Structure formats: structure tokens, C-alpha cells
Amino acid sequence: MSAISGRAPELVSKRHRRFAGPWTYLFLLPAVALFVVFIAYPIVWVLGESFFSLDRGGANNFVGLDTYLSVLADPVFWVVVRNMFVWGLITIPVQMIIGGTIAYFIERHTDAWRGFFRTMFFLPVVTSVSVISLVWVQIYAPYYGIAQEYLKLFGIEMASSPIGDPSTAIYALIVVNIWQWTGFSMLMYVAGIANLPTEVLDAARVDGARGLRLAWSVIIPMLSPVTKSLLLLGIIGTLQTFPVVQLMTGGGPNHASEVFGTYVFRTSFVLGDTGRGATISVIVLLLALILSIIQIVYLGANLSPSGRREERA
Amino acid sequence: MRRHHPAVNRVVIHVVLLLVLVLWMIPEVYTLSIGLRTPSQAFDATLFAWPLTFDNFITVIRDNPLITFFLNSLIITLSTVALVVAFSSLFAFACAVLNLSGSLTLYATLLTTLMVPMASLVLPLAILLKTFGWVNTYAGLIFPYAALGVPFAVVVLKAFMEDSPKELFEAARVDGCNAWQTYWHVALPLVRPALVFVGIWQFITTWNEFFLALIILTRDEVKTLTIVPMQYSGLYMANPGALFAILTLIALPLILLYVVVQRAFVRGLLAGAVKG
């Protein structure tokens, strides 16, 4: 240490000569180039396109906010908003609670089996989502699916497939999503719990906090950075929802399970209405930005995997 | 008596965790189970059906170019992982170690990507890739995936580099290393657990990406494993045994890979939190 600090003045001058030459900006270049071409430019394009509309003659006319108004007047749009709201409101807390509980018991009460449990509960996350979707279609199927067969044992009768009924479709899809992503919440909490400072836990134990009391009044508050990251990731994840819905219901029946992903897909690629597709894309983007900013301002939430704080940034 | 409680508790907790796990694994087990059935049992509404047969697996492997889809997935995923690890570590190094002026503004700009849902990008990306002539090419997925993956990797790597002992970078400078040599010989080895973590996570997300792949890949020769199940669900509608044998084979590579690398993955995750 002393040797290094003894040379400090000399270092400062060397630093400017060797490390901060203009060529070091090349370190930033590849990432920035990717960002400009594949993220920033598409966003600018979609923003521009949302103000235009193709008329019957094929000419691209400036229509201002007309497309926005027509999207907002579309009842399907509001079904999508409601579905996304319900989706986030259910999946995020349920995944946190189940994932957090499993993580707590794995980390605090197992040793030899710890790695096994951590790995197994995470498997749905790494199972191809298209495989998962088709399996759950089969599970939910009337007559030959196992859901109706085994739920009968608990006195629950399912007359038809829950994904075929407009009133239950979205909830049936939410179940699939929770099943797939709880392992992710579990692993994030595992990292959080494994890294709790032992001194604090020991001090709490000396003060008589044990078991559930310890969990409730010490561990849960100390895990709040993880919870905040999961909330932020959960909201972005909700807006990302697409494959499960596309593959299991296609947004149906009669738009009952429509989400932003399927809405954009149908409008842009099935109906081929680029102007309208662009407008919906912009609305989704604005929504994501607004929700993220609200959280970052109010919760100081961060986006890193293990709940670490970005204090230096 | 009191002294025995912890041991009893441990057993009870293990049993309960195992029961929850068994329930949780039903969809995975069910996939395999249907794949192992004879046509006459394929529609039985039970989790297991006996006897087991491997005929479905033999048939679907013989009749389908699964290896092509697998190689497509592998090429796209490995290329993306390589780009993300390289570009994000360079960027993180410039921010955390070189402290280039303006780099923090660029960092904040890059981070906004994390809030951009795929749903709002697919349409403009599809049109952009069409102008590039990149529809039905590997590059058409690799570059957008890398662009979407870099910001998260930068967050992780930048934090790791900031937490590394500064003396090491200074010592390298004193020894006459230039920026590139410091990056290559000091920074990269220092953050290796984070590079592994970022690489594995990028592998998982790229391998399973569905939305953009569905739109960009329309020709069979370039399709990835993740988007082929749909076409098989039509093809094998009347033969669930064959369909689920294929689904098992499609899901298997990533599951096996994760089981192999999970230790390194969790280690990276834990290390990230320790230094927070």
C-alpha cells in the first residue's frame, strides 16, 4: 500500500499519458454501436411511423395522433390493459411469496440437499417455453388432460378446458407463468439469504428472535433489495409476456387473454397494419418507461440479479 | 426432548420440500411420461401409464431434422454469448476502471434498454432486418439479441470491476501495461465468476427466445429448437406420444446444460451479492 501511494503523484501523470488516450473510447464503441443500430434506431423509427398511416392507394400519410386515438378507442386495447394489470398483480407477489418461502427453507434448513433443491426448482425456468406451453395445453385438456382428472379428487369439477373459457383463460395462463418463473424468484432470494451478514442474524438470535419471528422481522426486511429488483423485473416481465399466451390461446377466446405481445403480433404481422402496430409498440414502450421511472424514483429499485445496490452509479 | 426438536424439524422440512418439489415437477414428468407411451395409452388421463416404450423417441429422431434445429440454436446462442461477454466487459472496463468522461452518461442511456419490452421492438426490428437482408439468417438474431443482452451484462460486470481492488489496476499501470493489456491480463481474470454468470444467463435467455425468432426465421433450415414445437403440434395432433417425445428432446439440451453449469452459475450470483 505505502509503496503505491508513495508513487501517487507520478501515477497521475502517467495515467493521463497511458490510459486516457482517445483510442480508449474504442472500448465503448461495440456496445454503443449495437445499441444505436438495434435499440435506439428501431425506437425512433417506430415513434415516427406511429404518426403515419397507409391509405388505400398505398401512400403514407401523416395522421398525427389519429392512430393513437383509434387504439385508445379500441375495446380490445382495454382488455389488454386489464389483463396485463391482473397478470402483474397476481404473478409478481405469488412468485415472490412461494419462491421466497422455498428459498428460506432451502437456505436455512438444508445442507446436503441444498444444491439439489436449488437446481430442481429452477428447472422450469430453463425449460423451453414452447414445450411448457404445449404440455400445459395437454394438462388442461378436457377428457384426457390430468388437471380435470386429479382436481376431481379434491372435489373440483372442470367441465371444459380453462383456457377455452373466456372468464378463466387469463388465470389459467397466469398459473403456467407462475409455475415457470417461481424458480427464478427462489434463486434470487437464495442469493439474498445466503449473503445475509451472520453478525446481524446472531445478534437477533441473542435477542430472542427465532424461527418465524426471525424470518418476519429480520430476514424479510433485510431482503428488500431483492424484493425491489424482483418487482422491477416482474413488471418488465409482465410487459414481455408473449410465448405462453401465443402458443396456448393465441390471445383468445375472443381476445379474453390478449396481452401486449399478442396484440402487437396480431396487428403488425397477421393483419399487416404497420402504422397501428407501431402505435401500440410506442404505447407499450411508454408504459414500460413510466412504470420503471416511478419505481426507480420511489423505491430506488435496481436491476441487478442479486439485489445489490447501484450506489456508485 | 427439547434437544431433539431441531433434528425432527429438519426431517419435516425436508419431507415438505420434497413433496412440494414432486408437485412442481409434474409438468416435466408428464412430458416425458406421454413421450414414453404406446398409441393406445397416449390419451389416458393419468400421470403415468405402463408399460413404457421408447418407440416414439426412435421414430421422431429418425423422421425429423432435430439435429439441424439443435445446431441452429447452438450457433445463434454461442455467437450471441460471445458478443455479449466481449462487448459488455469492454464497456464495463471503460466505465469502472478507465473512468472515461461521458461513459457514465452512456451507461445510463444503455440501461434504458432493460425497460424496453420485446413487444415494442419486434415490428421495427423486423423491418430493419428486412432492409439488411437478414431475414432467415443467423446474424438477424445474433445482433439484436446481443444488443438486448449487453446492458444487463454491463450492470453486473461494472459492479464487479468497481468492487475489485483498485491497487491491482494501479499496479498494472505502474508496470507499464496499457489499457488493453490491463483489460486482458488484469480485469478479465479478476471478474471471471461474473463473466461465467453473465454468459450462462445469456445462454439461457437466447436459447429460449421465442418472439423475434418466430418472426425472423421462417425457413426450416434456419429455425431454432424453441420455435419448432408449434409445427409438430399440428403434425402429430393425433399422436401425442410422438409429439411429447419431440418436446422432451427439445427441452433436454438446456436442462442438461443447466444441471452441469448450475454450480458456477449460483456461485456467480452469490458472489455478486456478497460484494454489494
Automatic annotation (TrEMBL), chain A:
Membrane-topology descriptor: Multi-pass membrane protein
Bilayer-spanning residue ranges: 23-47, 84-107, 119-141, 169-193, 214-239, 278-299
Keyword Transmembrane: yes
InterPro entries named in the record: ABC_transporter_permease, MetI-like, MetI-like_sf
Coiled coil (residue ranges): none
Major localisation: membrane
GO biological process: transmembrane transport
Domain ABC transmembrane type-1: start-end pairs: 81-295
Statement: the UniProt record of this protein carries the keyword Chaperone: no
Entry GO terms, CC: plasma membrane
Subcellular compartments: Cell membrane
UniProt record similarity statement: Belongs to the binding-protein-dependent transport system permease family.
Protein name stated in the entry: ABC transporter permease
Organism of this sequence: Pleomorphomonas carboxyditropha
Lineage: Bacteria, Pseudomonadati, Pseudomonadota, Alphaproteobacteria, Hyphomicrobiales
TrEMBL record, chain B:
Topology with respect to the bilayer: Multi-pass membrane protein
Cellular component GO terms, alphabetical: plasma membrane
Compartments, as annotated in UniProt: Cell inner membrane; Cell membrane
Keyword Membrane in record: yes
UniProt key word Transmembrane helix: yes
Keywords: Cell inner membrane, Cell membrane, Membrane, Transmembrane, Transmembrane helix, Transport
Domain spans labelled ABC transmembrane type-1: 70-261
Pfam family, one: BPD_transp_1
Domain of life, source organism: Bacteria
Segments crossing the lipid bilayer: 7-26, 74-98, 105-129, 141-161, 182-204, 242-261
Gene Ontology biological-process entries: transmembrane transport
Main subcellular location: membrane
Stored PANTHER family: ABC TRANSPORTER PERMEASE PROTEIN MG189-RELATED-RELATED, SN-GLYCEROL-3-PHOSPHATE TRANSPORT SYSTEM PERMEASE PROTEIN UGPE
Family of this protein: Belongs to the binding-protein-dependent transport system permease family.
Role, per record: Part of the ABC transporter complex UgpBAEC involved in sn-glycerol-3-phosphate (G3P) import. Probably responsible for the translocation of the substrate across the membrane.
Assembly and binders: The complex is composed of two ATP-binding proteins (UgpC), two transmembrane proteins (UgpA and UgpE) and a solute-binding protein (UgpB).
Identification of the protein by name: sn-glycerol-3-phosphate transport system permease protein UgpE
Source organism (scientific name): Pleomorphomonas carboxyditropha
